[in-house]
Structure formats: structure tokens, C-alpha cells
Amino acid sequence: MESPPGRFRPEFFCRQDESADPLFYDMPRLVVHIDEQAVAAVAEYLGEVLPAGAVVLDLMSSWRSHLPEDHAISTLVGLGMNAVELQENPQLDERVVHDLNADPALPLASGRFGAAVVTVSIQYMTRPVEVFREVRRVLADGGTFHVIFSDRMFPTKAVAVWHSLPDPRRRAELIAAYFDEAGGFVAPQFVDRSPSAQSDPVYVVRAARAEGASRWAGEGAAG
């Protein structure tokens, strides 16, 4: 998967609403941001890829993590912006309130997690490369990072570069570029898990921390 040219200029991460994010996210939003078919597709995907017994990081978490009910992970840690939303999430074992755009350093131990997930929120990251480096730090050797995205968003808080790339393949290339610039990840892969043409789409860009081999030898890197 190729990275887009001329990447990561400061203006890429400007937003229509540049007010402090805690103001925007202060009011709990106890709604899902993709439709039921897409939610089910995310749950099915996570049930397939999250390793049994692992500690998993749900980055930019909210009141739902979309894991299947019978998931076999040991611990789910949610890091998000709103304490009420995190408290309402029944799947979380631990909750951390933290603003990644203000401080991309994760207040979490190095090498703790077997996997990390960010679901339909990557478009709001203003310092994605720094966050991806931090995710690499907290992943164990061979740990995987799954960036799930769709086509919905709060438009005033999505970064300019996301708006400029409406095609999902180009957005996937942008996420791959974040992985590449962060360093230390195996070549990212693009996966389309959209359940149907009538539902919200579901796409994933995923990569493993470089010390471990890819778990998807049967699927080539997209590009």
C-alpha cells in the first residue's frame, strides 16, 4: 500500500472547528455512529482477529466497543474523551479519560497490549503519527493495531486531509502512511468488511508491530 505524496503538512490537520476538543465532547453522545449491519460487521471482524486471552486497547472509546458478546479477550481498556460515555460501556474493564489531540502520549504501560483498535474515529486525530508511535510502544511484540473506518463523521471536527480524500482506498492509503511514518509496523493491509451495499461501509487498515510476523499471510498487502 503506497503512501500519498507530500504528506503531513500542518494544514492537513486543520479543522473547521478548532475549539478545544473537551468542549465538543463534554456532552455525552450515547448513540452509535454506524448502522446496525455495520456494527454487526465490526463485531464479527473483531471476533476473528482479537487474540484469545489478550489485553486489548480500545482507543478513542465511547459507550460501545462493538466486540462480540462471547469475545475471549482477558481485559478491555477504553481510552476516550468523555467519562460518562466510558462508564456506560459495559464491555470495558478499565477506563481512561484522555485527550489524544492535546497529548498523544498514552498513559499506559509499554508492551502491555496484544491488540489495539480505533473504530470510526481516526478522522479526528490531529497528531496521528505521534499516536501511532505510542500505540506501537504499548503493543507487545507481534501485537496488532486495527484502524476501522466508515464514511460517517462529525464534519466540523474531522481533519482537512480526511475531507480531501473521499474515496475509501485513498483514505486507507492515508492511514497506511501514518503507520509508515510512525515506523516499527509490518506493511499495513486494507480490508473491506462492508456488509452490504445498503449499509454503512466498514473498512479496516491493520498492521502488526514489526517484531512479530503478520497474522494474515494469506492476504496480500493492499496497494
Quickly describe the structure.
By secondary structure, the chain is α/β, with parallel strands linked by helices. 24% of the residues lie in helices and 20% in strands. The radius of gyration is 16 Å and the shape is globular.
Verbal overview:
By secondary structure, this protein is α/β, with parallel strands linked by helices. It has one domain: Vaccinia Virus protein VP39 (Rossmann fold). Helix content is 24%, strand content 20%. It contains six helices and seven strands, in the order H-H-E-E-H-E-E-H-E-H-H-E-E. It has a seven-stranded mixed sheet with strand order 3-2-1-4-5-7-6. Helix 4 crosses helix 6. The longest helix is centred in the C-terminal third of the chain and has 15 residues. The N terminus and C terminus are likely disordered.
Q: What would CATH call the architecture?
A: 3-Layer(aba) Sandwich
* Helix and strand composition category: alpha/beta
Taken from the alpha-carbon principal axes, the silhouette is: globular
Low-confidence stretches: 1-6, 212-223
Which descriptors would you attach to this protein?
223 residues, alpha/beta, Rossmann fold, seven-stranded mixed sheet, 7 strands, 20% strand, globular, disordered C terminus
